[in-house]
Design brief:
7-stranded mixed β-sheet, about 450 residues, disordered N terminus, 3 domains, alpha/beta, about 20% helix, Rossmann fold, 5-stranded mixed β-sheet, elongated
Length: about 450
């Protein structure tokens, strides 16, 4: 039974996967790359088969750049080769090169005990090509196809390829002129394994003709180089395009929102989006707070020109609850909490400020649930302060891919839990009062929600 193979590059762990019964897997050794099984190679080099190769790797081609994180392996076997029926074992091995000082990461798998290769070749080829091999890190790779006859290597072919590194794109990004933020590494979401720098708009001349499978192209998430607003570089905005779409969804669905408070301004790009949205509404107003002012000059200038509807203030809303913040939050229709930084516990802030918010108001938390919490905990804890989790079916949709957690406040904890259980992805258990029939004390969330992509 063939299974999914994931190249998991965690610390120095090497994933070695054998799938076929009685498999003596090929292990990629130190350079030069040679597939070696438990064979006696004392008889010398591979058998000379003539000028025509018995097998070739069609994709990835040698020295090719790969744009998809799922490797679409393609092979060819020459079934007319005179030695083809001597093949008893076929192995595929792959290595990610980690540099001179780093350890390489290897995977391999074999089809063993082949009785009649010519008649079995199509099935073997299909199995090898159907493997889902994930390339989780940008870098250089080596892939090798080897064919054996018992203890002898009949034929092998080696291809080098790269994923996420091509041409001078990375250098272009390092040297680019960015009026908002110039450091690529400033935003840690730029280090996401699937965040292909070559998909940055500045590199379109290269990647525009090299995308093999647009279905795997990540343009929506906060890990995408496509994110950003107003033509601002992706490193200056933590919200992905799916988040911006979700924000517009909430504002359009709730036209009564006239006062927005943002806790966490950063460079102020999302702040401009929120502020302009309030400027377009009669009597709309936007306030944003941060512990420091990270806004560049051009953003500050826009705030100054629009000071009637949008204002920035420095305030320690993380460790304290200063009056200047609580006064605005208590009257807000929507509070937007940026919990992307390690020093900001989004749930702690949501609960602390949610307690003083009015009925009918909304909290949006970016990067929810975060690494230290799960969504079920969020829903239960927010329900205790009368907030209900909303719009999961839209947020988790593959065409949206938002990192937002959206909560709306009701009159009481019991009402919030009743509304919570109206979510179609939850199974809720009604708890009865002792000695009473059909008396609802409040639903209890008993199941985990869908896993967000």
């Amino acid at each position: 039974m063939w299974k999914k193979i994931i190249l998991s590059l965690v610390s120095t762990i090497v994933l070695l996967t054998c799938i076929i019964n009685n498999c003596n897997c090929a292990i990629i050794q130190d350079s030069p790359l040679i597939l070696v099984r438990n064979f006696d190679n004392s008889n010398g080099p591979p058998i000379k088969l003539g000028s025509n190769p018995m097998a070739t790797i069609l994709y990835p081609k040698n020295n090719e750049f790969v744009t998809d994180f799922l490797l679409d392996l393609k092979l060819h076997f020459d079934l007319k080769h005179p030695f083809v029926n001597r093949v008893t074992d076929v192995c595929i091995g792959m290595r990610m090169l980690r540099g001179k000082t780093g350890k390489s990461e290897d995977i391999s798998t074999c089809e063993n005990n082949i009785q009649h290769f010519r008649s079995q070749a199509n099935g073997i080829k299909a199995k090898l090509e159907q493997m889902e091999i994930e390339l989780p890190f940008r870098g250089y790779y080596i892939i090798e196809l080897a064919m054996f006859h018992n203890n002898e290597i009949l034929h092998n072919v080696i291809h080098n390829f790269s994923y996420g590194i091509a041409g001078n794109c990375e250098n272009t990004l390092q040297k680019r002129e960015n009026f908002i933020m110039t450091k690529v590494e400033h935003n840690n979401y730029g280090n996401d394994p699937r965040n292909i720098l070559q998909l940055h708009p500045l590199c379109y001349d290269w990647y525009g003709n090299n995308l093999n499978n647009l279905e795997n192209l990540d343009v929506l998430s906060s890990a995408s180089t496509f994110r950003g607003s107003f033509g601002v570089d992706y490193t200056s905005q933590l919200q992905g395009n799916g988040d911006i779409a979700m924000l517009n969804f909430v504002l359009a669905r709730h036209p009564r929102i006239l006062n927005i408070v943002e806790l966490g301004t950063f460079a102020g790009i999302t702040s401009l989006h929120l502020g302009i949205s309030m400027s377009l509404r009669n009597n709309g107003h936007f306030d944003t707070f941060d512990v420091q002012d990270h806004r560049p000059f051009n953003v500050k200038k826009i705030f100054t020109n629009m000071q009637d509807t949008m204002q920035f203030q420095i305030a320690d809303f993380i460790n304290l609850q200063p009056l200047q913040v609580t006064d605005k939050v208590s009257n807000a229709d929507l509070v937007f909490i940026d919990s992307s930084s390690n020093d900001r516990d989004g749930k702690k802030l949501a609960i602390a400020y949610g307690k003083i918010m009015k009925v009918g108001s909304i909290i949006i938390v970016s990067h929810c649930p975060g690494e230290s919490n799960n969504l079920n905990e969020w829903m239960n804890d927010m329900a205790k302060i009368a907030f209900t989790y909303k719009y999961h079916d839209v947020i988790a949709n593959k065409n949206v891919v938002s990192s937002f957690g959206i909560f709306e406040k009701y009159n009481s904890e019991d009402e919030a839990k009743v509304k919570l259980c109206e979510n179609p992805f939850l199974n809720c258990q009604k708890v009865q009062q002792p000695g009473q029939q059909q008396q609802q004390q409040g639903p209890k969330v008993t199941s985990q929600p869908m896993v967000r992509v």
